[in-house]
Amino acid sequence: MATMFLVVIYLAFISLGIPDSLLGSAWPVIRPDIGASFGFAGILSMIVAGGTIVSSLASGRLVQRVGTGKITLISCCLTAGALLGFSMAPSMIWLIFLAVPLGLGGGAIDAALNHYVAENYKAHHMNWLHCFWGVGATLGPIIMSFYIAEHNSWRDGYSTVSMIQFTLAIVLLVTLPLWKRVAAIKETEGPNSENPQDQVGEQIQPAAISKASVLQIKGVKPTLIAFLFYCGVESTAGLWGASYLVGARNMTAETAAGWISLYYGGITIGRLITGFITMKVHNRVLIRCGQIIAIAGGGMLLLPLPQIFLVGLILIGIGLAPIYPGLLHETPARFGRENSAKLMGFQMAVAYTGSTFLPPLFGLLASQMTINLFPFIVLAFIVLMMLSTEQVNRILK
Known about the structure:
It is a multi-pass membrane protein. The chain crosses the membrane at residues 34-59, 71-89, 95-116, 128-149, 161-179, 224-244, 256-273, 285-302, 308-328, 349-367, 373-389. By secondary structure, the protein is mainly α. The protein has one domain: MFS general substrate transporter like domains (Growth Hormone, Chain: A), CATH 1.20.1250. It has 15 helices and no strands. It has helices spanning 2-20, 22-34, 40-66, 68-88, 92-120, 124-151, 154-174, 178-189, 220-247, 253-277, 283-301, 308-320, 323-335, 337-368, 374-395. The radius of gyration is 20 Å and the shape is globular.
């Protein structure tokens, strides 16, 4: 039952990923339709991410009171309703209003399911959980590209995704009683044994540390910086990649959306493969390899050669694949299990801060200067992320 139920959790994470990639893929068509400025997508992204931060910080208390299953169901309904509203929005004001429940729903699902899987399933499931986020993020641009190409309508793309979300909400409603049953079974089985690779460096830090002094733990500050720039580069590439391909590389909107789906596809396939590799290779090695691949992809974006730069976009996705789940899973090994719950909340909040502010800042920069800065900014974010993680490795070696 627990294995079959895991499929439901994966489906829920697919629902989390689909909306994340829709706005960037559709923005070249949405912008002229509603008369928005170029950088307005950054404002919408900031509002969505802001709602995500709020709901993720509150999710721990909400899960204790309501339960993971109900939180996931309510959040799915919130995002479904917001996406349906997007499809009918007549103006920018409505998009701003609807971005709030979209962010609140997404953040609650993310934090609640990450916690549930960490508590009840083995380590490699964390990579596969985020792999299914990538499945959703890949499907989003594909769906949007189809409706732009075949119907010249971004609204139909949003309404279709909304129907998918409502369908998932029905599945979650039907399976709601299973959440407590599976958790009870897992509790009687005892805590999951971790891979030998996951034990390296465990309990490096002192035992429990007060919340006020969490930031004083060795290696925490550069780790938070790494989370900031990880989500910054992932969100910036997803939000502005299509606009860059249209504005700087002269692609059609539907073709650009298709290439953004391949970027998210790189993240998805990478995490699927990484889930198997983590059984043999330590997270820290995978994180470093992923960053090197992402840097190589960022360098390829700078090449003036036709088509070659598109491979760079896919390489960035593949390189990013193991980094986020790997950093999350390293938390107890690097800083002690007694401190991991507190640090997990800090890490996710800082990660969402990167999603909230860095893409809009690039949008402002691009609107004042040029969208051609896109590959330079993406590469800079990746390099800063890698420098931060390597600093942590030096501190905690």
